[in-house]
Design a protein that fits this description.
5-stranded mixed β-sheet, single chain, binds uracil, binds iron/sulfur cluster, 6-stranded mixed β-sheet
């Protein structure tokens, strides 16, 4: 997916900020203006030059800053520059932990507001089919967000409606998907297809199918859906019908909109209907955490239901996400080799992950693996727990720290506890923690890798002997 020409974009701002920083221009010597508020995003003193060393900023800050950059308040640029200055130049690495700080507070507030607005855009944007004579079908949507959230939600719609050609218009920006790439352009100040209809029925069907319970509790809906969204919600006519069938998930969904993970619990099938195929099928619909918007699909565990040995990884990687199966990428191939060396037949083992969606961040065409957060691991645990309840393995092997902590608690350390069989009352099994095969792949040289591999195989042998 390629992204072209984002107006008001964070990268453009970074460019300017970098130039200023090379000359160590302090924050109070800069006045930031939005590009379309008259004038350009160009402050006095931005000429080239300067040779101060480049500064480094924590990735977590940059990730949040990118979101804050979508806020409509012009002061965001100044807040961002002050933070960059204080963290990068003055070296205050812990600054973001000080929630009461006069720069950190607006940063956090704006971050929250933009995220919330982006969630709303995901929930409320409605596409309509329009006929395009030269080109066949196109879908258009009109939405009025508070902030410039299109860069944040564009990739989500590209994934969800990848086969359609669509454009989303907002007052500030538009995003266009031609089936292959996402392009951002200027906005329009009113709904460009007013009175052009044609897909109400199709939309209603779609709405029934995706059926997000957060939208069906009338009171909550009125609160969550400001009046200005209403005209773009053709499905209001079927709300009564949906209300009748509403599962009891509304609260959880509301929690999700408030930036908390509702967790997978609400998506489990009812007790008595939790066979592995039933679980696998229900997990496809899971929206227990925000990763449902990030990964392509739920990657559920696989293996015999009477397996004595269960292997638990962290989360699917790129190849697993595409294939829908655990451990089929590079780490999976190394795992296969190690299982073979340990004399274990993979087809007798149940293989799964602590988190069932691929957490990643797009970088150009690639998707970079990101470690799942503690809250995401917690959100996903009901699936792993249900798998363990079904399979009832004698031994569970935790591959890496994420799986180890999911199963043994946050004090678990691979370095200290690997290779030990730890009886767990909670899981009705012994848990053996070991290194993650990806960690072996990342090791710098072959002798180190070989040694780590041997140790990994030894741990698998221990587990397999105990399971026999
Ligand atoms: N890494 C994991 O933890 N799990 C997979 O399925 C693949 C890579
Ligand atoms: Fe659900 Fe787990 Fe996916 Fe989050 S990661 S949406 S909890 S399956």
């Amino acid at each position: 997916m390629s992204v072209v020409g984002v107006a008001h974009d964070f990268d453009a701002w970074c460019d300017h900020a970098r130039r200023l920083l090379r000359r160590r221009v302090p924050p109070d010597a800069v006045a930031w203006r939005d590009a379309d508020a008259g004038g350009s995003l160009f402050a006095p003193g931005m000429e080239e030059g300067g040779n101060a060393p480049a500064i480094r900023l924590p990735a977590t800050f940059l990730e949040r800053a990118r979101t804050v950059a979508c806020h409509r308040d012009e002061s965001r640029w100044a807040v961002l520059y002050r933070l960059v200055w204080r963290i990068g130049v003055e070296g205050d690495r812990g600054l973001l932990d000080d929630a009461a700080d006069p720069d950190v507070r607006p940063f956090e507030v704006m971050h929250k507001q933009v995220r919330f607005d982006a969630h709303k855009a995901k929930a409320f944007v409605r596409f309509r089919k329009v006929q395009d004579d030269a080109d066949g079908e196109r879908y258009l949507a009109w939405h009025r967000p508070e902030h410039r959230v299109l860069p944040l939600v564009g990739p989500f719609f590209a994934r969800r409606f990848g086969v359609m050609r669509w454009t989303i218009f907002t007052p500030h920006q538009s995003a266009d998907w031609d089936g292959r790439s996402l392009t951002y352009g200027p906005g329009v100040d009113r709904d460009p297809m007013e009175a052009r209809d044609g897909m109400e029925e199709l939309w209603k069907t779609y709405y029934r199918n995706i059926f997000n319970p957060a939208r069906i509790k009338t009171g909550a809906m009125l609160k969550e859906m400001p009046r200005r969204y209403w005209s773009t919600m053709p499905e209001t006519g079927i709300i009564d019908e949906l209300l009748r069938d509403a599962p009891d998930r509304v609260k959880l969904m509301m929690a999700r909109q408030q930036d908390e993970n509702p967790g997978a619990e609400a998506f489990l099938p009812p007790a008595g209907h939790r066979s592995l195929p039933q679980l696998r099928s229900a997990a496809k619909q899971c929206e227990g955490c925000e990763l449902c918007d990030v990964g392509t699909r739920t990657v559920f565990g696989e293996g015999p239901r009477d397996a004595r040995l269960m292997l638990v990884g962290e989360q699917p990687g790129n190849e697993e996400d595409l294939a829908g199966r655990p451990f089929v990428g590079p780490a999976g191939r190394l795992l296969d080799e190690a299982l073979h060396a340990a004399g274990i037949d993979r087809s007798t083992v149940y293989v799964t992950n602590a988190v069932k969606h691929f957490r990643n961040e797009p970088r150009g065409k690639r998707r970079i693996h990101m470690k799942p957060t503690v809250s995401q691991v917690r959100a996903c645990l009901p699936w792993l727990r249900s798998e363990i309840e079904q399979v009832r393995p004698a031994i569970i092997v935790a591959l890496g720290a994420t799986a180890g902590q999911a199963l043994l608690g946050r004090t678990y350390r691979v370095t200290q506890q690997r290779g030990q069989l730890i009886d767990s009352e909670q899981w009705g099994a012994a848990v053996l923690g070991t290194i993650h095969p990806s960690a072996i792949l990342r090791m710098p040289d072959q002798p180190t890798r070989d040694q780590a591999f041997e140790q990994f195989v030894a741990d698998l042998r221990t587990a397999s002997a105990a399971a026999a």
